[in-house]
């Protein structure tokens, strides 16, 4: 199912945004990385920052890779470099997800993600989700940073990025030097498709575990 319908602007409304956010934050499968190696459990109540996170443009477009202008040697060098954005940020490294979006749509997402609102705070009220204003309000445990949904050009597909943080009683040396009491645990980009019923169904996801 290639997403290639292309129009001038995003087609969405506040109801869609809220529905996608609720779907993303209440679906336990979106947070499976929290249970990596059985170290922790997914909390019954997700603690979510009220300030929206920014999308990273590298999630949707990497010059030379997305437009396929690199030769095989250069491409191989980037793919083999674990620190290159291709290996931890670029969502189309997943062949399944890449097959869902045309090149034009991928470029569209790259351009639109840089325009997504990051000033309007979340006020979502739904069971199992608690919105907090600052890290100081949270007890040690998992915290979640969320982007506002990013919609495809036809408004029928939405993406949400979930960044998983972990607040600890005793921060690591790196976090102490950065004067913070938390670290990034991992992140997950989740894709939803709007059904004829108006509900949003999960299509796929791609994440990266940092620990």
Give an account of the 3D structure.
- The chain has 211 residues and is α+β, with helices and mostly antiparallel strands.
- The chain has 2 domains: 10-55 and 120-211, Nuclear Transport Factor 2, Chain: A, CATH 3.10.450; 57-115, no CATH class.
- It contains 5 helices and 7 strands.
- The protein has helices at 14-26, 72-79, 95-98, 103-113, 173-177, and strands at 46-49, 129-132, 141-146, 150-151, 157-167, 182-194, 200-209.
- The strands form 2 sheets. Strands 3, 4, 5, 6 and 7 form a 5-stranded antiparallel β-sheet that branches. A two-stranded parallel ribbon has the order 1-2.
- It is globular and about 50 Å long.
- The model is unreliable at 1-13 (pLDDT under 50).
